[in-house]
Amino acid sequence: MRPIARRSLAHVALLGCIVTLPACGDGPLQPGGGSSLRMSIDGQQWTAVSVTANNINGIVGTGAADLAGVGFGFAFQGSTTGTYMIAANSPTNATYSEGGNGWAATSAGGSGTITVTTLNAERVAGTFTFQVNAVGQHMPATRSITNGVFDIEF
Fold first, then answer.
1. Contact, 129 vs 149, CB < 8 A?
2. Cα separation values, 52 from 39, 80, 97, Å
3. Which of 33, 69, 112, 143 is deepest in the core (most CB within 10 A)?
4. How many domains, the chain?
5. φ, ψ of residue 84 in degrees (nearest 5)
6. What is the pTM of this model?
7. In 3D, which of 4, 135, 91, 154 has the Cα closest to residue 143?
8. What's the pLDDT tens digit per position in 89-105?
9. Which are the contacts of 17, defined by CB distance < 8 A and separation ≥ 6?
């Protein structure tokens, strides 16, 4: 498969998961529930109340949201644990949305890594960090996503 096609598949997996967030994976988190995702956004702690993940033909897409309408997701292509980086011709990507504005890290801009510590038929877990760029002319032009931790059941 050509790199552009893989990148497109990863984007479709990510967008499909975010758009269908309530229907994917675990849904709303319950105390003691099976999925979680938390991170810092520009230094402010954020915890998702709804988390999902899909693994479709080796493309893992995640989505997370809170009750205020903040959304976050990332995707990567891989079938093993390890570190996946955003780079030229890489299908790894991340998106963040808040207040109708969006930011993204893709092979066309932004940066980041996903370190996967668990990947099997039941779950995906690990850590992440991203520098996402505004999609459009809104401010701030970049957002820093750090201290990301996820553990999501498929």
1. no
2. 15, 19, 16
3. 112
4. 1
5. -115, 125
6. 0.80
7. 135
8. 899 999 999 999 999 99
9. 24, 25, 52, 53, 54, 61, 62, 63, 73, 75
